[in-house]
# Entry
Amino acid sequence: MPVSEQCLVQLQNVKVSQRTVNRNIKDLLRDFESQEITIPPYQRTFIWDVTTKSRFIESILMDIPIPPIFLLEKIESQSGEVRYEVIDGAQRLNTLKAFKFGDFKISNLLKLPDLNRTKYDDLPPAMRTILLSRQLQIIIIEKTTNPDIQFEIFERLNQGSVSLNAQELRNCMFHGEFNDFLLNLRNNKLYRELLKPFPKFKIVPLGKPDKNRFLDVEMILRFFALYESFIVSDDGKFMPPTKDMLNFYMAMKSKRSMNNNVELGKMSSAYSISTEKLESLFSKVLQIIKMTFKDNQFRRFKVKQDEAKFDSFNKAIFDIQLLGFANLEISDIQDKTEIIYENFLDISSYNSAFIDTVTYSTNQKINERISIWNNALNSILKDQKPYIEKVMLKKNKFNNSPICEYCNKSINDIDESDYIEKQLVHRCCHYKNILPDMSGRNYNSDLWYLEQRRRSLSNPDSFPSKIKKYLMENKEVTFGELKRVSIEEFGYSENSGSFSASVKLLEVDGYTNSLSK
# Structure
């Protein structure tokens, strides 16, 4: 098939502007030491071990071809001076510098064993000269290269043994005032306290394996991006927090921090919240979260076969907790934290739509989960009396006799319990009680079956979705009428089990509250 000339235009738009130079190690280290060449912070956590460093030095001495070092050309916003940021080759430069300044002895060499346990100053002068005069190939990505293509270069170059994740790449791509703001905000005292229960967020000493890899920074960015994208949206919805969306927001904030309204163009009035206001917003929602979630912040509450407990860190829960409180003040919720917490347990236990939004394809379901959570908060703010009553009755019952009315076993933690029809029960027992009544199935298959029903609610052509739509459009419906419509109009057999299972599922979400038998 012939290729149109449009491809030439596309090629021009994505073409990388680059130049290649050869530099001897002596001159390269001089520029490195003078900060003309810099290594961005995100790369400083990756440190080679001594054996890897040593064999790299051995390769240089043997004149084995070394992969090129990639540098990104940058213009300093304050001074206008040209600087070069390492895209690929940080460990090679660090190793050369460390060896030259005597930071380690080479060891475990394969071809030059006589040099084992040797520092740079111990090498014969002629060998030191050989080392410093070796030429390395340098590929410079010029500043005129499209920023989107620069990001693509970073991704493709870093698909090796230590691939950089999206946030590490953003730190390089969009360095500047706004990026520095995010990096500083990660050290917020309360933020670090709230992240402390999660091992992946532990800050480790330089050179140690870092499980975090700027995820803490990305979560702050994610919150701000969602918050500001909602403000500028035409349809009153959040944009899914995809990699491209976060990149776009980061680029816009970086340009704004440089007062580059020319480049912002039509978006010159968008994403204009100052860093001071964003920091204040961040601090406020963290305070509310600490007041509300009893050290269980950012966790999904999950009901399983024999237990109900908080799970590990969950990005989707992080979203709803920060965004849900963003437009509230501390005074709005300070006397309601206990019932908000209880309501979170309830929707996490039984609301299948909510459970789905924090479990499957979560980025694409940002609006659904925020809507469910905001509706719950608004209901509490409108009239907290029924919620308070339930919480008080549950606490009294638990303190006096923490025994499940279903299984007659002890309830170890109040979060595991629920107060249903004047009875204290395990949430997992109540969960079992509302499962579809399907004969011949064991409990595990029932759990699987219910989960499939939950997932099918997102499909408008599924049977549960059709029932749900019918109930929403017809408020006064009897159980018998719904069953008749399901069989006659939706085409399902009375013996298929689909009807009773779907009604049980929808019952959990409150869609059958007005349904009478």
Remarks:
- The chain has four domains: 13-163, 165-273, 293-315+329-433, 443-508.
- Residues 13-163 form one domain.
- The chain has a mean pLDDT of 82.
